[in-house]
Design brief:
The structure holds 2 protein chains of 2 kinds. By secondary structure, chain A is α+β, with helices and mostly antiparallel strands. Chain A is about 55% helix and about 15% strand. In chain A, the strands form 2 sheets. In chain A, strands 1, 2, 3, 4, 7, 8, 9, 10, 11 and 12 form a 10-stranded mixed sheet that branches. Chain A has a two-stranded antiparallel sheet with strand order 5-6. The radius of gyration of chain A is 31 Å and the shape is elongated. In chain B, the strands form 2 sheets. Chain B has a 6-stranded mixed sheet with strand order 5-6-7-3-8-9. A 3-stranded antiparallel sheet of chain B has the order 2-1-4, with helices on one face. In chain B, strand 8 and strand 9 form a beta hairpin. Chain B is globular and about 50 Å long. Classes of the chains: A alpha+beta, B alpha/beta. The interface between A and B is medium-sized, with 23 and 30 residues.
């Protein structure tokens, strides 16, 4: 026997498809928006957690529990001398300290937090990953040697009124370029988007960089440049970088080391805290996404409620016929709820079916965005849909039980 | 009351509307129907025939008076619903088949509503009423005569004690009317109790007994 709600859905195909499509859009939005907001952040957090370090040295204040501005941290930060201090005074705790100069560069139509690094720190910064093509910036250290040799030729006042050496202005950009200072490694994803290959030149702002290597996906930054160049060009100081990745000696407890190593020059956070801080930083965005999701689902279910209510009004005779056969109120309610549930499940199926093309479309249009379609979001979407279907069908179902049998069967 | 009375109506009153618009339709109506009897109720339009059918069919309560079916007088909506579900079958002038279901499914859903399983009786009815060939068709794909016969099958599928028919030939041509009334006659001969509302004197000739209504009471 054909189930009456199924027969009704099949009999009113356009109405059913439109209703289901309303649900589908809501489900698709919920899964994709959640997957987009969480996925892109999760991808960033995953990359930071790939660093082979236990602690991150940050400027004082950024290490406080309620400070979530780490994601925006760039430019001058922790004194480079802190690395030497750690190794000298706390060699029993610290194995490696790798200064990194963070600065936002625009490439491929999107801003990226680039990392100015020393080639020798690559194994820590990249978490042991090897380049997939080319070499590291200033791989042989020729530029770093040239830079340090020329530092002493110019003096100016640096941060904290310290005298700071720098390259003489007349020898700056041209000579830096000539000595390999404007070299760059990009990750595979950025290479795919920009279609840049090893040996290509790319101009960002006032500077032209040469791509000398391609890093695998999943390393901490999408762009790596020589740290000295980044300090000089973006920070105008050779005494400070932004952060330092601290690799502890084997067996050292990161939490205990954190307390021990914090001083006036730098604060420390656990690498594993980065994800939490990142998510907290974007808490408002998550709330916004949740509100949008709730509104889109609410609209979808108002649509369903309206459809079912109209259906009940149009089918008073059908309901009355069932009642004349002795159908109980519960039977009538079950028919309406079942039809709502079926429409919703149809909508969920369509919604999920268009979710993957939507993910593909977003990632195709903006290849650096990550849409993670996670089962928790799908489960939440299906759960919300089923609950919404029941709630939105309740009033129409109640009205169906109130249909006056005699009136409905008597009126032509 | 005789032991053979399956349906008894005594002193039925029923009104619709309020205030000045109130219409007193049934005005102390009495009626008895014996088991296996085929009774036709005739009367002019507006005399209360259909209202009587709704009250006897447990679709609406009388304002006052008593309806007893097999000696039971329902006291509330729940009891009326139980009687409607298990003891009464209704045939309407406009057939009232569900448009989205096939003939077979129209009958099947009525059984499902009634909590009954089809023990083969439905197929037998489709055969005996000569509508086997439309069992898989929807109402829109059937002739009106076929629709009415399917409506009769739906009303009989659960083996009701009482078949109520409201102008069952009202929308049928004379050939289909004759055929349906012949079926009713045969059912009555087999022991089915039938109460039929009709305008047609010809239709009434098929019944065992005809009662006449006027102004909400049985006159003869």
């Amino acid at each position: 026997m054909t189930f009456l709600p199924v027969a009704n859905i099949l009999h009113h195909k356009l109405r059913s498809v439109l209703s289901a499509f309303g649900i589908a859009v809501g489900i698709c939005m919920l899964v994709v928006l959640s997957g987009l907001s969480r996925g892109s952040l999760s991808e960033v957090a995953d990359r930071w957690e790939s660093v082979d370090a236990d602690l991150i040295a940050v400027p004082r204040g950024y290490d406080e529990a309620d400070n979530d501005n780490l994601i925006t941290l760039s430019g001058l930060g922790v004194p480079d001398s802190y690395a030497a201090y750690l190794l000298r005074e706390h060699g029993d705790l610290v194995r490696r300290a790798c200064p990194v100069f963070l600065y936002k560069l625009n490439l491929g139509g999107q801003g990226h937090m680039s990392s100015g690094i020393d080639a020798g720190d690559w194994d820590v910064v990249a978490g042991g990953k090897k380049l997939v093509a080319g070499r590291l910036p200033d791989a042989d250290g020729r530029f770093a040697r040239w830079f340090d040799e020329n530092l002493k030729q110019s003096k100016r006042t640096g941060p904290d009124d310290e005298d700071e050496e720098d390259i003489p202005p007349e020898r700056q950009l041209v000579d830096i370029a000539a000595n390999g200072g404007f070299e760059m490694v990009i990750d595979q994803r950025l290479a795919r988007v920009t279609k840049l290959r090893v040996g290509d030149d790319v101009t960002i702002g006032q500077h032209t960089w040469r791509v000398v290597g391609i890093a695998p996906e999943g390393v901490v930054s999408r762009i790596f440049v020589p740290r000295r160049t980044a300090q000089h060009v973006f920070g105008h100081s050779t005494l400070r970088s932004t952060i330092q990745f601290i690799q502890l000696q084997p067996g050292v407890d990161p939490q205990a080391a954190r307390t021990e190593l914090t001083n006036d020059y730098a604060g420390l956070i656990l690498v594993t805290d980065y994800r939490r801080k990142l998510e907290k930083q974007f808490e408002v965005m998550f709330k916004y996404v949740s509100v949008v999701n709730v509104i889109s689902l609410a609209i979808a279910f108002l649509f369903i409620m309206n459809t079912l209510y109209t259906m009940v009004l149009q089918r008073t005779r059908e309901i009355a016929i069932l009642r004349s056969c002795g159908a109980s109120g519960a039977f009538i309610v079950r028919q309406v709820l079942a039809e709502s549930l079926l429409l919703t499940l149809l909508g969920v199926a369509i919604g999920l079916a268009i979710t993957w093309p939507a993910k593909w479309g977003i990632e195709h249009a903006a290849p650096l965005l990550t849409v993670t379609i996670g089962w928790p979001y799908i489960a939440a979407g299906v759960g919300a849909a089923v609950l919404g279907a029941m709630i939105s069908a309740f009033y129409p179902a109640y009205r169906a039980t109130r249909v006056d049998m005699v009136e409905a069967l008597t009126l032509e | 009351m005789t032991d053979n009375d399956i349906l008894i109506a005594e002193g039925l009153h029923k009104s619709y509307g309020h205030g000045d618009a109130r219409v007193h339709v049934l005005r102390g109506l009495d009626l008895r129907v014996r088991a296996g009897e085929f009774v036709a109720v005739m009367g002019p339009s507006g005399c209360g025939k259909t209202t009587l059918l709704h009250v006897l069919g447990m679709m609406t309560p009388a304002d006052s008076g008593v309806v007893r079916f097999k000696g039971v007088s329902p006291t509330g909506a729940r009891q009326r619903n139980q009687l409607r579900r298990h003891e009464i079958g209704m045939v309407f002038q406009r057939f009232n088949l569900l448009a989205v279901l096939s003939a077979r499914d129209n009958v099947a859903i009525s059984l499902r509503v009634r909590g009954r399983r089809d023990d083969g009786h439905t197929a037998e009815l489709f055969r005996s009423l000569n509508v086997e060939h439309v069992a898989g068709r929807k109402p829109s794909q059937m002739s009106i005569g076929e629709q009415q016969r399917v409506a009769v099958i739906r009303a009989l599928a659960h083996r009701p004690g009482l078949l109520l028919a409201d102008e069952p030939t009202g929308n049928l041509d004379s050939a289909n009317s004759q055929e349906l009334l012949t079926i009713f006659r045969r059912l009555a001969h087999e022991g089915q109790t039938i109460l039929m509302i009709t305008h047609s004197p010809e239709a009434a000739t098929f019944a065992d007994r005809t009662v006449h209504m006027k102004d909400g009471v049985i006159t003869a």
